[in-house]
Amino acid sequence: MEPSELTTSYLIGRADRIVRQHLEEALAGSGLSIAEFTTLSVLRARPGLSNARLARRALVTPQAMHKVIRSLEDAGLVSRTAAAEGGRALEATITEAGASLVTTLLTRVAELEDDIFAALDARDRGELLRLLVLATSAAPA
Predict the structure, then answer these.
(1) Terminus-to-terminus CA distance in the chain, angstroms?
(2) Domain containing 74 — which CATH number?
(3) pLDDT band at 19 (very low <50, low <70, confident <90, very high)
(4) Which of 43, 50, 53, 80 shows the greatest Cβ crowding within 10 Å of its Cβ?
């Protein structure tokens, strides 16, 4: 198939499948699902998010995020406290154990990205990243 015959959506979907497969391999043995790893990564950068905000950032439903947070909390990787504004909302924060685990896993993820995108030089990878950020920040949620 010629590149001109491929749609952007198809290629993004194909890249997603490749990345997910490799990500599952990188997470093997950690005890984490992709959603749990993503949640820890988000909390590392943005502590104190509610379940609803975490769900949007981790690309899962709020119901699924409730299960993810519960699992991470049971494993001692996340703690939750009442939101400063009051109400029923709980804010999640990554624990030291969670931060240590996600740091280790991010090293594996960087290695897998190096393997997946080996055909791209540093300039091309930077451009790909720039374009993906631009496209995803402009798209409706």
Answers:
(1) 31
(2) 1.10.10.10
(3) very high
(4) 43
Residue 57 makes CB contacts below 8 A (sequence gap 6+) with 38, 42, 46, 49
CA distance 45 to 63: 22
Please, what is the angle between helix 34-45 and helix 62-74, to 10°? 80
Name residue 49's amino acid. L
Return the DSSP state at 91.
Answer: E
Give 7: exposed, middle or buried? Use CB within 10 Å, 0-12, 13-18, 19+: exposed
Give the structural domain span for 123. 3-138
Domain count, the chain: 1
The pTM of the full predicted model, rounded to 2 decimals, is 0.83
Reported residue count of the chain is 141
Distances from the Cα of 23 to the Cα of 80, 109, 125, angstroms: 27, 7, 18
Decide: 112 and 25 in contact? Cβ < 8 Å.
yes
